[in-house]
Design brief:
The protein has 162 residues and is mainly β. Helix content is 5%, strand content 29%. It starts with 17 loop residues before the first strand and ends with a strand.
């Protein structure tokens, strides 16, 4: 990536919106949520998913990682009645999968020193039924499994630079 351009466009669907009280879309993620800071997951909130949603899934990925897209957080089985996640918590009913580091849970941003700001995409999927995801799934495996089946998706992008 040569600048702050972001060619990915995926507006919230059906009024389904993902937000964070800690940072705005396309704005810097506070250091508290990074691996250099407190390494706690940021608080997130979302609006009601579309009718027919049986499960929510959350993926946070860094598409700018030097070795390819890095999974920072993958949580499935989220209760569709949940409207958010508190800082440092797992969402209601959620099952944390292994991230790229092999940890089950959040691993905060830690891009190489001197890199331009990396984009951290939080994607929340509204699903019509349970879709099994392997525990150590890559970002592309998650996309392949969920994108054709989703009822809606909302993305929040945070930036982080060291």
């Amino acid at each position: 990536m040569t600048g702050m351009e972001d060619t990915y466009e995926n507006p919230a669907q059906d009024g389904f919106h993902l937000r964070s009280p800690a940072f705005d879309d396309r704005a810097p993620i506070p250091p508290r949520f990074s691996a250099d800071g407190g390494n706690v997951s940021p608080p997130l909130s979302w609006t009601r998913p579309p009718p027919g949603t049986q499960e929510l899934a959350l993926l946070c990925e860094d598409p700018d990682a030097p070795a390819g897209t890095y999974v920072h957080w993958l949580v499935t089985d989220i209760d569709p009645g949940a409207r958010g996640i508190a800082e440092g918590e797992l969402p209601a009913g959620g099952r944390a999968h292994a991230n790229t580091m092999g940890d089950h849970g959040w691993d905060g941003p830690r891009p190489p020193v001197g890199d331009p700001a990396h984009r951290y995409r939080f994607r929340l999927y509204a699903l019509p039924f349970h879709i099994p995801i392997p525990d150590h799934a890559s970002a592309s495996e998650v996309h392949r499994a969920l994108e054709d089946e989703r009822l809606a998706e909302s993305t929040l992008t945070g930036l982080y630079q060291r």
